[in-house]
Specification:
Elements lengths: L1 H8 L7 E10 L2 E10 L7 E5 L13 H11 L2 E5 L11 H15 L11 E6 L1 H17 L6 E5 L10 H5 L8 H12 L1 H5 L22 E9 L3 H13 L4 E10 L10 H20 L1
Helix pairs in contact: 3-4
Length: 286
């Protein structure tokens, strides 16, 4: 099981990172958010993180080490959100949860002792999809750049299973085309998946329509040997076409899910450090 493998691979937190859980109200329910806070930074910046797992599995627990290392690498507070999962909570619930979490955390920055002037989102795989969708929705609803930056790690961008990388890596290594088709079906249903390029909801197909506002400054990290490689590259190009500052990093030799292999896999750790360094550079340029 996804959760069992993650539990066995969880490592002690970096010494300078403290971890606490809080609950935020969402549509009559409560979502757990796990905060990873650098000990020595006064009023740290906030990154809201959404875990991967195909919208179906995963939690802040499965991605605990990923979030802890991101907090240490960026010296930001990372708030890892336990959004509700498909198929019990299919689309749009995971997306709605992501939006609600970003809005609640944005409004709570001062009370949480965070920098009130900055907020970023991040995520891996399906979590990166939710992060990007939530950033766009929140900014367009508020007509303001509430979310100023996003770190997207091998993101899902569109319900298209016909790209070159889907053909090249249809059977892996790692994530397969059939697995992604199954995840999409659990999330949005077979009828919506069948729309493919005709899908017009930007909460599903991130590139379905032009953004109403300048997108956040972005770092997009893709794995070279991944069915989702071309999703990430296409979304990075979409952001560039709409005038967002974008840094695209293609992790050569890496497969889907490598962020969860760190720090035991040195190459995975190196690529994640490189992405974190690029992301902090984006902060400084804002």
């Amino acid at each position: 099981r996804f959760e069992d493998v993650a539990a066995r691979s969880r490592l002690p937190d970096p010494e300078e990172i403290s971890v606490t859980d809080l609950a935020i109200p969402v549509d009559g329910a409560a979502l757990t958010v796990r905060l990873f806070r650098p000990a020595t930074v006064e009023q740290p910046r906030l990154i809201v993180y959404f875990h991967g797992g195909g919208w179906v599995v995963g939690s802040p627990e499965t991605h605990h080490t990923v979030a802890a290392l991101l907090a240490a690498d960026t010296q930001c507070v990372v708030a890892s959100v336990d959004y509700r999962l498909a198929p019990e909570y299919a689309f749009p619930t995971p997306c709605d949860d992501a939006v609600a979490a970003v809005q609640w955390l944005a409004a709570s920055r001062e009370s949480l002792g965070l920098n009130p002037e900055f907020l970023a989102v991040a995520g891996d795989s399906a979590g990166a999809h939710l992060a990007a969708a939530a950033a766009r929705i929140v900014n367009e609803q508020h007509r303001a750049h509430i979310v100023q930056a996003q770190l997207l790690i091998y993101p899902v961008a569109a319900p298209l299973l016909t790209t070159e990388s889907y053909r090249a890596f249809a059977n892996g290594p790692g994530l397969t085309r059939d697995e992604m088709a199954w995840y999409w079906t659990q999330f949005i249903g077979a009828e919506e998946l069948a729309k493919g390029a005709a899908q017009d909801d930007p909460r599903i197909h991130l590139m379905a329509s032009p953004p109403a506002m300048l997108p956040p400054a972005s770092v997009v990290l893709v794995a070279a040997n991944d069915v989702l490689r071309d999703d990430g590259l296409a979304y990075a190009n979409f952001l560039v076409r709409h005038d967002a500052p974008v840094i695209t990093i293609e992790a050569s030799g890496m497969t889907h899910g490598f962020a969860r292999l760190q720090p035991d896999a040195p190459r995975a750790r190196e690529w994640m450090r490189r992405a974190a360094d690029a992301f902090t550079g984006v902060f400084d340029d804002l």
